[in-house]
Structure formats: structure tokens, C-alpha cells
């Protein structure tokens, strides 16, 4: 059954602390033998910490990924969660090697593959039935897809201005669909970057968008998993600072421009469709 902890937005410390407090109550009531945590968000670390402090074993799904960039909050969460977990379920062989180099015993490491890819393949046929193309008046490979949410890109005006200037130039050649994270949307307004978008769609008017032949950017509300997956599947290319989308585009064989200087998923570069472009307008435009 689902348990809602009632923890919303806040600083990293606030979120981590509140999840620990509320999740500890669940653990004391349910008395589980094992807690399974997934990914690299604040709740991943918080739940693992709460468990091991009560002498409950923890298992980390998506263990061993490393960007080697400790300015990323997710990197701190990954490192600490892996150090305190009893079972480390890795998505790739390079993740195994990362853990071994950090002194994790071999008997704790289990290469299981990528559950996000499993989910994608399981839901691909359902995503194909999505009506998002009709709603946005799009055609296969007739648009680029953009996501943007990392603090280093969104919270600094210079970085966000650089990225949006590149996106604006790209949009003169191909429409750009941009499902915007709420914090990103807030920063676009705060930095007066909304004029870079020719159309800002709210949930009630999204179907009224008419793509233009020149300089077309559509900022939409966050989309459902299946709607977004369909957009990923048929995009000409994807621009993102998300880790998971790097993997999804590789599996879908869709070109991906990652708006970061590092990645915890190097296999998407060595064996996939991913290119690191940072937030340099010149490099973004060249690779697009």
C-alpha cells in the first residue's frame, strides 16, 4: 500500500530531515526486514539513513553511478546511499567498477540491469497510443524536445540565458517542445526570459497551440509519463539535463544533447546516442 509522508518542497536539508522523521514512523510501525530505495534524490538517502539507523537492511536500486561532480546534490546522495546500503543493485558494469574502486565488497554488488529501461520497454506500446501529437499538432521527427531542471542550469541567470538563447536559435529551424519543471518556469519569469518563447501554454489552452514556421517554442506544463515517452520516441533530437532521459534516448536511438559537462551514465556516450554540450550556446547549436 502507498503511504504519503506529506513532505513537499524545501531546501535539501529540510526535505532530507522531514523524510527521515516521517519515514522512521512508518518503519517503527511496519517493522520491515528490508527497505529498498531507488535512484539519487533526497528521499533515497533519507529513507536509507532512517532504515540503517534502526538496524534494518537497505538495498539501493541504481547503485554505483558516478558523475564525479560533487557540486551535484544527486552525486552526494548516490555516494552516501551506496556506503550505507547492504545490497547494491547496479544498472551497468561501469557502476560495478565504481563501487569496487570505493572499497565496496564484491558480495554486496549485484548487476541487475536498468529498471528504467525495463519500464520504458514495458510501456512503449501504451505510449504509442497517447494523443499528445494531436493535442500539440506535431508530426514524427518534426520537433525537438527539451527538458531543463538542474539548479546549475536553471538557478543561475547567466546559464539559463545562454541555454535559452541557443534554444531560440534552434527553434528557428525546428519547433521545440519544452515541458517545463515548475521551478524552471518560475526562473524563466524571474529572469525575464519568457519572451524567448513564442507561446506559453497552460493546461487549459495547450490544445490551442499553432506551431509557427519560424521561432516556435512551446512551453507546456509537466506531462504524464506516457505522453512524454511518446514525445521522446519520435523527436528529431532531445536536449536535456536529466540523467534518466540520457538512458531512454539511447535505448530509443534518438540523438540526445545533454546540457551538462559531466554524466553519471557514460555508457550513453560510449555506446549510445548522447553528447555532452554543457550550457555553451555555440556547442548546443553546433550539435543540434
UniProtKB/TrEMBL annotation:
Residues 2-287 form the UDP-N-acetylglucosamine 2-epimerase domain. InterPro entries: UDP_GlcNAc_Epimerase_2_dom (IPR003331), WecB-like (IPR029767). Gene3D superfamilies: Glycogen Phosphorylase B. It holds the Pfam family Epimerase_2. This is UDP-N-acetylglucosamine 2-epimerase domain-containing protein.
Amino acid at each position: 500500500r502507498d503511504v504519503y509522508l506529506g513532505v513537499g518542497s524545501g531546501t535539501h536539508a529540510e526535505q532530507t530531515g522531514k523524510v527521515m522523521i516521517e519515514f522512521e514512523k512508518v518503519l517503527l510501525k511496519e517493522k520491515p526486514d528490508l527497505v529498498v530505495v531507488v535512484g539519487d534524490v533526497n528521499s533515497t538517502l533519507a529513507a536509507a539513513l532512517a532504515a540503517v539507523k534502526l538496524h534494518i537492511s537497505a538495498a539501493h536500486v541504481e547503485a554505483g553511478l558516478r558523475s564525479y561532480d560533487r557540486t551535484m546534490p544527486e552525486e552526494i546522495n548516490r555516494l552516501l546511499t551506496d556506503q550505507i546500503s547492504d545490497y547494491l543493485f547496479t544498472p551497468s558494469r561501469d557502476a560495478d567498477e565504481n563501487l569496487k574502486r570505493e572499497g565496496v565488497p564484491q558480495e554486496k554488488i549485484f548487476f541487475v540491469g536498468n529498471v528504467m529501461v525495463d519500464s520504458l520497454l514495458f510501456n512503449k506500446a501504451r505510449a504509442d497510443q497517447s494523443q499528445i501529437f494531436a493535442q500539440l499538432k506535431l508530426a514524427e521527427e518534426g520537433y525537438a524536445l527539451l527538458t531543463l531542471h538542474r539548479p546549475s542550469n536553471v538557478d543561475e541567470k547567466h546559464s539559463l540565458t545562454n541555454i535559452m538563447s541557443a534554444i531560440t536559435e534552434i527553434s528557428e529551424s525546428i519547433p521545440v517542445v519544452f515541458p517545463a519543471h515548475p521551478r524552471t518556469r518560475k526562473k524563466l519569469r524571474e529572469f525575464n526570459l519568457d519572451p524567448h518563447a513564442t507561446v506559453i501554454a497552460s493546461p487549459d489552452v495547450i490544445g490551442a497551440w499553432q506551431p509557427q514556421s519560424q521561432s516556435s517554442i512551446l512551453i507546456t506544463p509537466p506531462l504524464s509519463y506516457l505522453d512524454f515517452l511518446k514525445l521522446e520516441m519520435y523527436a528529431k533530437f532531445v536536449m536535456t539535463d536529466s540523467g534518466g532521459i540520457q538512458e531512454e534516448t539511447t535505448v530509443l536511438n534518438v540523438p540526445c544533447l545533454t546540457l551538462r559537462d559531466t554524466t553519471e551514465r557514460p555508457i550513453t556516450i560510449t555506446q549510445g546516442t548522447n553528447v555532452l554540450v554543457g550550457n555553451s550556446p555555440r556547442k548546443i547549436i553546433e550539435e543540434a
